[in-house]
Amino acid sequence: MKLNIIIGENNLSIEVPIDMLDDAEEIFAKMDKEMDKGGQMYRDWVDDLSQLQRCQIIANRLLTAIEIENEATSMLMAGYIMSRMPGAATVEISTDGDITQTQLT
Q: Do residues 59 and 102 touch, judged by C-beta distance below 8 A?
């Protein structure tokens, strides 16, 4: 499965093998459990994160992984988004620090 990533003027794709999604489910569940406590959404703390907000937080982690060229983490973060928002084909990651502006389509 492929997730298209837009970062400013740059476009890239991350290919995530289907079996990796199943294999990483335990990790994804741990990530969900961590976010069950809430999360920082730009300037605000949100106690009860929606699925979209969780994916926006993970997209921010994906951006960091891409910037430091950590392919394993990039694939894991892309996999989380694909598993939790199966209809999303593209993530346009906000680069101005406001993760609430990250769009999943």
A: yes
